[in-house]
Amino acid sequence: MCAYVRIELGSYETKVIKLRLSNQDIDSPIGDTFEAVFEERIKESRSFLESITENSSEEEREIQKQAFAGLLWTKQYYNYEVEQWIKGDPNQSPT
């Protein structure tokens, strides 16, 4: 699935796009609960970050938050060939 939205923005202009993905028909996908669910996810995210950076300074925590966000944003599938790794690449010298 891919969403494609084209928006033209002027200088210093911002737009908010609210999107909800579901495998079911929803009468009001952006209904009254949308903002509440979004706020709950923000709280969960902050709680998670605090739990894994409890010994970090505020500056370090901010750096780690940005690093984690980058990792999640660029998350891709990597095919890890364990069998080939164990046996080695037949086209390469072992040294």
Account of the 3D structure:
This protein is mainly α. It has a domain at about 35-85. It has helices at about 35-50, 60-75, 80-85. The protein is extended, with a radius of gyration of 21 Å. The model has no long low-confidence stretch (mean pLDDT about 85).
Strand element count: 0
- Gyration radius (Cα, Å) is 21 Å
Strand content: under 5%
Separation of the first and last Cα atoms = 45 Å
Report the order of strands and helices. HHH
Outline the low-pLDDT stretches. none
Helicity, as a percent range: 40-55%
Our count of helices gives 3
Gross geometry: extended
* Structure classification: mainly alpha
Topology of this structure?
Blueprint: H1 33-52, H2 58-73, H3 82-87
Which keywords apply here?
3 helices; mainly alpha; 95 residues; single chain
Put the structure in a nutshell:
With 95 residues, the chain is mainly alpha-helical.
